[in-house]
Amino acid sequence: MQTTAPKARLSIACLLLGALLAAPLGCSSTQTRSGSKDGKSDPVAAYSARRQAEALEHIRKAEALEAAGKNDEAILEYRAALETKNDMFAAWNNLGHLLMKKENYADAVSAFQVASRLQPGDPRPEYNIGLAYQRVGWAQDSFLHFELALDRDPVYLPALRGAVRSAEMLGQADQQVLDFIRSAQLRETEEQWKTYFQRQRVRVESQLSLAHD
Fold it and tell me: How many CB atoms lie within 10 A of CB 58?
């Protein structure tokens, strides 16, 4: 059974809203609408705003191209966004996803690693790294990164699926894996995964029982 790779699908509207929410609340009574105390515009802030707008436009184009199945062109647009402004989480994560589709796992992992550093509380980049490693057969490495994703969000279902699948690849059967299975069973809605988790629970519980005899 193959796990799937959810992306950080952040719309342009959400990114803009996030930028607004990150702005300081309130302002000085001496500050003018231009953003400076003396009424002059701030050239650094204006330059940063232009770069942000340019990067967001590249991301918008990349999303449209990806939706149209033009993945190579979408990759170029994501790279253009990051050349414009290299701290765009969605661009790094979505770029990694497209590179993984092309089986360029080394560059995909590199992109996900940057995304992970940019959003240290988001489980998706670590999950995606785990998925990349799983697809090349590196079960131990993939299990580690699924664990890291679950450290960030213990109930993130894709990472629970990935961790249980990697544990099966390793033949691993311990209390941690059983806990992952139980947590997944409480949240799973897809029948094929429910069946899979029940089968894995029987496997792990049987091996634990034999180990205790």
Answer: 21
For 3, 122, 180, the CA distances from 117, given in Å and listed in that order, are 23, 10, 25
Tokens of 152: 């960030």
Q: Average pLDDT of each block of 10 consecutive residues along the chain (213 residues)? A: 53 39 31 48 85 94 97 98 96 98 98 98 98 98 98 98 98 98 98 98 96 76
Of 202, 184, 206, the closest CA to residue 193 belongs to 184
Residue 98 identity (one-letter amino acid):
L
Tokens of 9: 């699908």
Contact 144, 129 (CB under 8 A): no
SS3 assignment, position 67: helix
For residues 58 and 81, what is the distance between their CA atoms, to the nearest angstrom? Answer: 5
**Neighbour count for residue 189 (Cβ, 10 Å):** 7
